[in-house]
Structures are given as structure tokens and as C-alpha cells.
Recover the amino acids of this structure.
């Protein structure tokens, strides 16, 4: 049996909490009843500096239910940081933690499958939506576009996976070694390693309240995801520079030809040539400088270069390495 924590970041979620809590506590009771998880397992609500009654509701639930706990952050730090706070709080107390949004758009029915996969040796189990029927057309297009752009820009991420996943305590330990401030969990987690798997479900509509991710936040989030995972955009700029310089060469031939045939206004040749050539050179140089800055950027993040899974000493019991 495993000890499980379900971590739920909550920002102004007073409308959904009653229903969410009902479903999650029932689920937890069921899991405990069926002997899937130990009775010390719990749900941790992380209050991300809500301005409504979220925290007082969480406090009340924590008193009413044995399986409910709350964590209050001092201020609003955003979804990703709130989630990290919750995960880091539980990482040494449990065998595995599942993160899920407060609105329960992600199907809690697959939590059992996640636990099964964990028991068969997976350290990370991603919840992946296989359809977006309930999302509005706009949300679907923007969200799917998001994953595609991310991929082109070189950030590693699991298609159609948000922050609904199970992580073992050693995967969480791995995660704790990532020192970056610009947190994009769904990009970081796949870089940790370990055996992983996916479970599939259909995404539901938000229970109540409204999305805390309007379009401007989504764009900011996508931008964050790209810029904190890859320095590819810099290579693209360099590429454009090279392309312009090549254009300049073509233009050189063309304008020289025009010049020789005398078919041209005085001064045109030199202006057109320098325009393309200098433009290309400038972009190329900016991209070049960007490459160095990108390298510095990667270095200052001080990410772990490797994460040890286990060590075999040849003696009877293998020593689990959790560093
Ligand atoms: N959230 C948070 N801090 C914030 C914004 C959102 O903790 O500053 C939480 C929110 O309570 C929810 C989750 O992040 O549990 C995802 O937000 P939401 O459901 O609004 O996003 P969407 O599903 O629309 O992308
Ligand atoms: Mg949601």
C-alpha cells in the first residue's frame, strides 16, 4: 500500500471547493477502503493568496475531514509555484503525490490507474486528455496551438498533458534539484527521467467559477515555457540573418547586371545591396550574441546534470539513492 497525497492549488476557488472537496474526499475514502492507499494519505489544498473565502473554507474542511490538509502561501505566486510549494511540502512524507487543478476538469476517475501504474514501477504518470470536446473552440485551438508552438520552439513537453500527474517521492526529489525561478513544470518534469507512462481521459468543463487562465495569461505562459526551455528562437534569428545575406548575394548579381546594362537610377545599386547585406549581418550578429547569452542562461539555471535512480552494490539489498 502506498501513502498518497493529492495536491490541489487553489486561487479564488470558493465556488468550486465544496464540490471538489466532496468528490476528492469520497475518492480518498474509496481508495482507503479498497486498500489502495494507506489511511494516512491526504489531500493538500494550497491556497495561493486567494482574495476570497478560499482559505477559511480550506481551514474548515481540514477540521472536518481527517484526510484534508491545507497550506497557506503568504501571497499569490501563480499556479506553477503554488503547485511546487505543495509538492515540495509533501515530498518526504508520502510515496507518491498527484497534482490536480481545483476545478476538477481532469477526470479523477483515472487516479486508480495512476496508482496502478505507479505500483508497476512508473515514477511519473502523466494524465493526458484524449479529447477537448467540452472546451470552447477558441480554447481548444489556442491550447493545441500552444503545444505545437512549444514543440517547434524546442521545449520538451507531453502533448495535451497539463499539470495532472502522479510523481513518486524520488521523482519529486529530482524536481527539487531544479533551481530555476521561471517555473514551467510540464516542461521540467519530462527532463527528470525515470520510467513514466500516461493515462488517458476526457477533459470536463470547469465545475464553477471562471478560468484563471485568460488569453493574456496563456500567452505569457507559452512565452515563459519557450524562453525557459530553449534557446532555439536565437538560432532562428541567426537563420534569418543567413537567409538575408544570401538574398544580398542574389541581389548583388541582379543589381550588378542592371548596372551594367545601364538600366538603373544612379545610387540604386549600392543602396539595395547595403540594405540587404547590412540587415542580414545585423541579424546574424544579434543571433550570435544571443547564442552566448543563451549559454549563460542555461548555465545560471544550475539544473542538475543527472539524477541517480538507484545503485547496485552486489550485496543482497540494493541501496535506494535519493539525492
Ligand atoms: N491557480 C493558482 N494560482 C493562480 C492561478 C490559478 O493556484 O494564480 C490555480 C487554480 O485555482 C486552478 C489551477 O491553478 O486550480 C488552474 O487554473 P484554471 O482552472 O483557472 O486554468 P484553466 O483550466 O482554465 O487553464
Ligand atoms: Mg481549469
Amino acid at each position: 500500500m502506498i501513502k498518497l497525497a493529492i495536491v490541489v492549488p487553489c486561487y479564488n476557488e470558493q465556488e468550486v471547493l465544496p464540490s471538489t472537496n466532496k468528490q476528492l474526499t469520497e475518492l480518498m475514502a474509496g481508495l482507503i477502503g479498497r486498500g489502495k492507499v494507506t489511511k494516512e494519505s491526504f489531500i493538500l489544498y494550497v491556497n495561493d493568496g486567494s482574495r476570497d473565502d478560499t482559505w477559511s473554507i480550506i481551514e474548515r474542511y481540514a477540521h472536518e475531514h481527517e484526510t484534508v490538509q491545507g497550506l497557506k502561501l503568504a501571497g499569490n505566486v501563480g499556479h506553477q509555484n503554488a503547485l511546487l510549494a505543495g509538492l515540495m511540502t509533501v515530498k518526504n512524507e508520502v510515496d507518491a503525490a498527484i497534482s490536480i487543478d481545483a476545478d476538477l476538469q481532469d477526470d479523477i476517475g483515472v487516479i486508480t490507474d495512476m496508482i496502478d501504474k505507479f505500483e508497476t514501477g512508473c515514477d511519473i504518470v502523466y494524465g493526458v486528455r484524449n479529447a477537448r470536446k467540452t472546451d470552447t473552440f477558441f480554447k481548444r485551438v489556442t491550447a493545441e496551438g500552444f503545444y505545437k508552438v512549444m514543440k517547434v520552439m524546442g521545449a520538451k513537453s507531453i502533448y495535451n498533458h497539463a499539470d495532472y500527474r502522479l510523481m513518486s517521492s524520488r521523482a519529486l526529489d529530482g524536481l527539487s534539484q531544479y533551481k530555476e525561478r521561471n517555473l514551467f513544470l510540464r516542461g521540467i518534469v519530462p527532463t527528470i527521467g525515470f520510467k513514466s507512462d500516461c493515462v488517458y481521459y476526457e477533459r470536463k468543463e470547469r465545475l464553477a467559477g471562471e478560468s484563471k487562465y485568460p488569453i493574456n495569461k496563456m500567452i505569457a505562459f507559452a512565452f515563459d515555457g519557450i524562453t525557459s526551455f530553449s534557446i532555439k528562437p536565437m538560432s532562428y534569428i541567426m537563420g534569418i540573418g543567413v537567409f538575408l545575406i544570401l538574398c544580398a548575394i542574389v541581389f548583388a548579381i541582379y543589381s550588378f547586371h542592371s548596372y551594367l546594362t545601364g538600366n538603373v537610377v544612379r545610387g540604386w545599386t549600392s543602396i539595395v545591396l547595403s540594405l540587404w547585406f547590412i540587415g542580414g549581418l545585423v541579424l546574424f550578429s544579434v543571433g550570435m550574441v544571443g547564442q552566448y547569452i543563451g549559454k549563460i542562461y542555461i548555465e545560471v539555471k544550475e539544473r542538475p546534470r543527472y539524477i541517480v535512480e538507484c545503485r547496485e552494490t552486489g550485496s543482497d539489498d540494493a541501496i535506494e539513492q535519493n539525492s
